[in-house]
From TrEMBL, chain A:
UniProt KW keywords: Kinase, Transferase
Protein name in UniProt: Phosphoenolpyruvate-dihydroxyacetone phosphotransferase
Gene3D superfamilies per record: 1.25.40.340
Coiled coil regions, renumbered to chain: none
InterPro entries: DhaK_L_YcgS, DhaL_dom, DhaL_dom_sf, Dihydroxyacetone_Kinase
Automatic annotation (TrEMBL), chain B:
Gene source species: Kibdelosporangium persicum
Domain DhaK, chain residue ranges per copy: 7-331
InterPro entries associated with the record: DhaK_1, DhaK_dom, Dihydroxyacetone_Kinase
Protein name per the record: Phosphoenolpyruvate-dihydroxyacetone phosphotransferase, dihydroxyacetone binding subunit DhaK
Pfam families on file: Dak1 (PF02733)
């Protein structure tokens, strides 16, 4: 893929397809330990994103800013402000640079994580999207000397593993925390969707 | 799934249209983004009370919009918190110049979305305060959970603080009263059946015929423990005891008792349960000063109930008794 605004738009289109394809899976995961709306909410959000991509902007940062405001105003739940904040911080970090580089993608991912932590106040081990995003940022940083595609692939691999690792955890944030010990044995839907999105971006970039 | 709907994706919008048609003298509805607001908004010089949350809890919150209660309600998708742009639109629409109090139920999504909207409003120089209600004793409040949920107590809070705002309380006074109500109210619920979110199409959890779920929230999420079904006498005790032990309530206290249906439990059963709760409170020397019985904070078609006990004082009673004219509650006006 190209690393300019058009490339980012293409990656977002495939992310929207992935969200649509995994809508039922996310609903099922969320029904186990939450209230079952994550897949539907994210699908609604990314459908809205699709409708805005045509005139989203001339730089990767501008495109991601549109994604952020669209998700904030359409997703609802905790995922809306959290994903919205993640994309907003990433957009701010990218600023007006015309093309992504390996190191700017690393910085954007790190900024996204900081934003999610600041808004949601979750820590690693709380069984949230932070458990996917934190190892993703670390792996991306290790791959910073390579290409955009390699950085995203490393992040997606680590996020997938991080999401898997949420299965035995007892939730300490979000609606799943009300279940206490009963939340163990299920993958966190937010961690799963984070891993899915990063995988979609990595696939689009390779 | 059998529901009186056309399309799962338009349930909330179509329902709001019906609400507006039914109660046009009290409230108005705007869409994109969706807000239910008082027909006479903005009420100049009065503190505006704004709440909201996922749909599926009707009459909360849209049915609480009107004189003496809410100035606006922001309905999210079913069981999904509203988005910040809805809350911002509500604030702009009803701000009468005396400030805005946001009443938020303690769920991660609700808190995050209202917080985001409050930040935007503050950046525009508006005086916006937020109170978060967390009355559900079924959830342990600790560093290791998202904290207690906001459930039945929300209806009482919105009535009392809404009455006070109508009566001329300042924003500071409304906020202080709201915090006092939040500190004095406790709730606990039980589900006999799960409920089905329209766009999901399947029940949110499965209960066998002889099972009930103690400590459910209002979003179809499972509770803390599953036990065999029990007679009403025992069930009401199961709900009431953790409430009374928590605050704690003690002999000589004056309370408002709210017996709430989760949507599918009929009034014949609800009154039966309410009668037991009144007797159990009297046995403990607790005086029930006011009551509310009915489906006010619901979870779609879920069968089940919740009990809410608010320790009242004269100030709270005054604003509880004050005139109210909404779709769901109407007295004195």
């Amino acid at each position: 893929m190209s690393c300019d605004a058009a490339g980012v738009v293409a990656a977002l289109r495939s992310a929207a397809e992935v969200v649509e394809a995994h809508r039922d899976e996310l609903v099922t995961l969320d029904r186990e330990i939450g209230d079952g709306d994550h897949g539907e909410n994210l699908k609604r959000g990314f459908t809205a994103v699709l409708s805005k991509l045509d005139n989203a902007g001339d730089t990767p940062g501008a495109v991601l800013k549109v994604v952020a405001s669209t998700l904030i105003s359409t997703v609802g739940g905790a995922a809306g402000p959290l994903y919205g904040t993640a994309f907003l911080r990433a957009a701010a970090k990218l600023g007006t640079e015309p093309e992504l580089t390996a190191s700017s993608v690393v910085d954007a991912l790190a900024a996204a994580l900081e934003g999610v932590v600041a808004r949601g106040k979750a820590e690693v081990g709380d069984k949230t999207m932070v458990d996917a995003l934190t190892p993703a940022v670390a792996a991306a940083r290790d791959a910073a000397g390579s290409s955009v595609a390699e950085v995203l692939r490393a992040a997606a691999d680590a996020a997938g593993k991080g999401a898997e690792d949420t299965v035995p955890l007892v939730a300490r944030k979000g609606r799943a925390s009300y279940l206490g010990e009963r939340s163990a044995g299920h993958m966190d839907p937010g961690a799963r969707s984070t891993a899915l999105l990063l995988r979609a971006f990595a696939d689009a970039a390779s | 799934m059998k529901k009186i709907i056309n399309d799962p994706s338009t349930v909330v919008t179509e329902s709001l249209r019906g609400l507006a048609a039914a109660h046009g003298d009290i409230l108005k509805v705007r869409t994109e983004p969706a807000v239910v607001y008082r027909a006479d908004a903005p009420a100049s010089g009065k503190v505006a009370i704004v709440s909201g949350g996922g749909s599926g809890h009707e009459p909360m919150h849209g049915g609480f919009v009107g004189l003496g209660m809410l100035d606006a309600a922001c309905p999210g998708a079913v069981f999904t918190s509203p988005t910040p742009d809805q809350v911002q639109a509500a604030i702009e629409h009803v701000n009468g110049g005396a400030g805005v109090l946001l009443v938020v139920k303690n769920y991660t999504g609700d808190v995050l979305n209202f917080e985001t909207a409050a930040e935007f409003a503050a950046a525009e120089g508006l005086d916006v305060r937020t109170v978060v209600i967390d009355d559900d004793v079924a959830v342990k409040d600790s560093l290791y959970t998202a904290g207690r949920r906001g459930v039945g107590g929300t209806a009482l809070l919105e009535k009392i603080v809404g009455g006070a705002a109508e009566g001329g309380y300042s924003l500071d006074e409304c906020e202080a009263l709201a915090r006092r109500v939040i500190g004095s109210v406790r709730s606990m619920g039980v589900a006999l059946t799960a409920c089905t979110v329209p766009h999901i199409g399947e029940p949110s959890f499965v209960l066998e015929d002889d099972e009930i779920e103690i400590g459910i929230g209002i979003h179809g999420e499972p509770g803390r423990r599953r036990v065999p079904h029990q007679p009403a006498e025992q069930l009401v005790q199961t709900l009431l005891e953790p409430i009374l032990d928590d605050l704690p309530f003690s002999s000589g206290d004056r309370v408002l008792l709210f017996t709430n249906s989760m949507g599918g439990t009929p009034l014949v059963e609800l009154y039966l349960a309410h009668g037991i709760a009144e007797r159990l409170l009297a046995d403990r020397g607790i005086t029930v000063e006011r009551r509310l019985v009915g489906p006010y904070v619901t979870s779609l078609e879920m069968q089940g109930m919740s009990l809410t006990v608010l320790k009242v004082d004269d100030e709270m009673l005054r604003w509880w008794d004050a005139p109210v004219r909404t779709a769901a509650l109407r007295w004195g006006a």
